[in-house]
């Protein structure tokens, strides 16, 4: 009886150990799938997410990276960054095209190891266009054609087909003989080697790949990463440039450390900090911007008129802002395309041009509003606290004052024993000049340079 019980116990123990071994084996066979969604415009922010996703997948030792894609494309330089990161990934990447992989999206999809498409989806139409959807000159198309061919070759796909997605002149019998840019449906892509299977969802993709036992880790950026991705968007960069220039302009109109200058400094920090953290903006690029701003201020405050210092300052500012958007290595721009350079320079110049239009059309009206006037820190007493400002300022007109700062046009004057804000009516006025108050707009007096031997009421 004891022998029988002992035998049964040993049998149970052996069975338990076998079950444990089988469970351990099943755990060992479980695959880790790292999933990233590309369901937005391809921008530097998206490129940042893709790079972080690959890095995290490598850290977690994931077996596969699964991309769920639905995009009409976006910026070529951002797409090139994602393409390069995918091509160099040590982990196989599977893309599931859940509707669209157009333009830059097609380039990214071709860079993946395996391509699956949902019924009704499409891939192709990779011609480089401007913001009005007009094809850019052939030098841009040539660069895109080369990238598409190289990417297709790296993944063992027909490079001529990839080129036909960019160039309607590419003639491939029974593939692209219509004289139009090539776009594939799922069945067409499957037939010509640009799709490895058709599936309704990403889970079906994994099943078709023979992956049934898996865990999924979804890319989840922190709030800090989301903010950085938002700030490096080209549109936001343009707005920050506008705020930088606007803050400096309004501070010049009403000198004194106030809200406009603070806004300009904050905008500069928000512009450069994300680019610096991203590895795009280097120290020399930020220094070049600072030197440019210093030269412009020297030209304005110290050297009357506008000459070499001002021109050099503008060049330094534009260069610093533009180059900080590029992924160059120090002074090596060999890996940067002409299109990337023109894009960054265009963003900066258009933002500066837009700033000038806004300042000259809206600046005066904005500065005349009570709300704006309350935001400016003044070194003079408020209205009503002294005898400087009368009910309408009429008593000031025609009286003399002393310029205590340069007026270009905004500055400070000494009137009736007090320093107050004023603006030059006609160009630059040097510090220490005698001026005459010509009118008062309710906020600050307008002045002009006193003519020689002109007789006025002395109030300075």
Key phrases:
460 residues; 2-enoyl-CoA Hydratase, Chain A, domain 1; OB fold (Dihydrolipoamide Acetyltransferase, E2P); 3 domains; eight-stranded mixed sheet; 15 helices; 14 strands; 47% helix; elongated
Helix content: 40-55%
Instruction: Kindly estimate the percentage of residues that lie in beta strands according to DSSP.
Output: 15-25%
Structurally, how many domains make up the residues?
3
Structural class: alpha/beta
Largest sheet: 8 strands, mixed
What would you report as the Rg, rounded to the nearest angstrom?
33 Å
Q: What CATH architecture of the largest domain would you give?
A: Alpha-Beta Complex
Distance between the termini: 122 Å
Concise summary:
By secondary structure, this protein is an alpha/beta fold. The chain is built from 15 helices and 14 strands. The chain folds into 3 domains: 23-221, 2-enoyl-CoA Hydratase, Chain A, domain 1; 224-374, no CATH class; 386-458, OB fold (Dihydrolipoamide Acetyltransferase, E2P) (Beta Barrel).
Question: Can you characterise this structure?
Answer:
- Helix content is 47%, strand content 16%.
- With 460 residues, it is an alpha/beta fold.
- It has 3 domains: 23-221, Alpha-Beta Complex (2-enoyl-CoA Hydratase, Chain A, domain 1), CATH 3.90.226; 224-374, no CATH class; 386-458, Nucleic acid-binding proteins (OB fold (Dihydrolipoamide Acetyltransferase, E2P), Beta Barrel), CATH 2.40.50.140.
- Strand 1 (31-38), helix 2 and strand 2 (64-71) form a beta-alpha-beta unit.
- Helix 3 packs parallel to helix 4 (104-110), helix 10 runs parallel beside helix 14 (338-367) and helix 13 packs across helix 14.
- The longest helix has 30 residues, at 338-367.
- Residues 375-392 have low confidence and may be disordered.
């Amino acid at each position: 009886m004891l022998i029988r019980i002992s035998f049964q116990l040993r049998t149970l123990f052996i069975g338990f150990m076998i079950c444990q071994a089988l469970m351990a084996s099943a755990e060992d066979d479980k695959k880790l799938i790292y999933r990233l969604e590309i369901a937005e415009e391809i921008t530097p922010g998206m490129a940042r997410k893709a790079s972080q996703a690959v890095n995290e997948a490598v850290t977690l030792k994931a077996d596969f990276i699964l991309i769920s894609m639905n995009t009409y494309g976006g910026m070529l330089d951002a797409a090139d960054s994602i393409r390069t990161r995918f091509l160099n990934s040590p982990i196989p990447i599977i893309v599931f095209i859940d509707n669209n992989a157009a333009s830059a999206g097609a380039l990214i999809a071709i860079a993946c190891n395996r391509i699956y498409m949902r019924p009704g989806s499409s891939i192709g139409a990779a011609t480089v266009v401007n913001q009005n959807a007009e094809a850019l000159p052939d030098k841009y198309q040539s660069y895109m054609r080369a990238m598409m061919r190289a990417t297709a070759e790296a993944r063992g796909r027909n490079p001529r087909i990839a080129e036909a997605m960019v160039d309607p002149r590419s003639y491939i019998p029974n593939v692209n003989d219509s004289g139009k840019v090539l776009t594939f449906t799922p069945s067409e892509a499957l037939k010509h080697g640009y799709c490895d299977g058709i599936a309704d969802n990403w889970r079906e993709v994994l099943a078709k790949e023979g992956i049934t036992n898996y865990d999924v880790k979804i890319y989840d950026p922190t709030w800090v990463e989301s903010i950085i991705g938002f700030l490096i968007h080209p549109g936001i960069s343009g707005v920050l440039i506008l705020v930088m220039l606007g803050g400096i302009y309004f501070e010049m109109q009403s000198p004194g450390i106030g809200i406009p200058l603070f806004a300009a400094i904050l905008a500069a920090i928000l512009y450069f900090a994300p680019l610096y953290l991203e590895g795009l903006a280097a120290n020399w690029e930020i220094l070049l911007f600072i030197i440019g701003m210093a030269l412009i201020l020297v030209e304005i405050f110290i050297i009357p008129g506008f000459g070499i210092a001002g021109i050099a300052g503008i060049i330094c500012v534009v260069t610093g802002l533009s180059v900080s958007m590029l992924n160059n290595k120090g002074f090596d721009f060999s890996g940067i395309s002409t299109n990337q350079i023109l894009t960054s320079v265009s963003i900066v110049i258009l933002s500066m041009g837009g700033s000038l239009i806004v300042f000259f059309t809206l600046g005066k009206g904005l500065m005349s509003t009570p709300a704006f006037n309350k935001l400016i820190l003044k070194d003079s007493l408020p209205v009503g606290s002294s005898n400087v400002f009368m009910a309408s300022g009429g008593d000031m007109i025609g009286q003399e004052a002393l310029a205590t700062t340069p007026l270009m046009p905004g500055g400070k004057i000494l009137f009736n024993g007090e320093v107050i804000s004023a603006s030059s009516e006609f160009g630059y006025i040097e510090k220490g000049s005698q001026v005459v108050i010509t009118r008062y707009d309710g906020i600050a007096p307008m002045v002009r340079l006193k003519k020689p031997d002109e007789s006025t009421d002395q109030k300075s």
